[in-house]
Amino acid sequence: MKEISLRLKDKRFAYRIYLILGALFISSLVASNLIFQKFFYWDFFGVYTFEISVGILPYPITFLITDIISEIFGKKKANQIVTAGIFASFFSLLIIYTASSVPATSWSPIDDDTFDTVFGATAIAVFASMIAYLFAQYIDIQIFHFWKRLTKGKHLWLRNNFSTFSSQFIDTATVLLLLCATNVIAWDRFTTLLINGFLFKVLVAALDTPILYIAVYALRKRFSLKSSDEVELDI
Fold first, then answer.
1. How many C-beta neighbours within 10 Å does residue 183 have?
2. Residue of higher predicted confidence among 90 and 153
3. From CA 191, how far away is CA 187, in angstroms rounded?
């Protein structure tokens, strides 16, 4: 891939875009770890009924964002965002532990038991999510750039979906294995949640392809990039 050096004005704009995408990525990742204990069902036009955690809702956004960053800013910058997300998740866990350790007042709207019920399994969830996250995100980036090199920057839909499908299955299976092994989720729910989680992520990945095309097209036009070009950021 060819890195393109931008004018100072364009480089500042590119840096702001990179920061915004990074902020969206990290907030989506942290939120998914905090809200995972609520489960819901979704009837997909009478074809299939999903039973999944609400934590899965923001998670596909992270793969869309790393694909955009990979396409425009390159593999190195995508990996940097993934690493930042790991630190952010563990830091959020530290904050939750601190909040849990201090006693609630008698007039607190949320008492200690309620707080622990909502956030008590967060440590296990974050650990499980991080293990899956490490596997899935780095694999997603590797596969994405493998197909980008193979197709010489063409067929964006191919590398977007192939990389996401593979990484999402690994992510879903790893999280559920760890949560079931630690008794956060019963083993008899494993197969159902694996199928539901993977199918939901595949569906979202397919649906977000137009969004990826729009974002990549707009950024390529803004920075005058060819299909195989990437923006060079000196950070």
1. 10
2. 90
3. 8
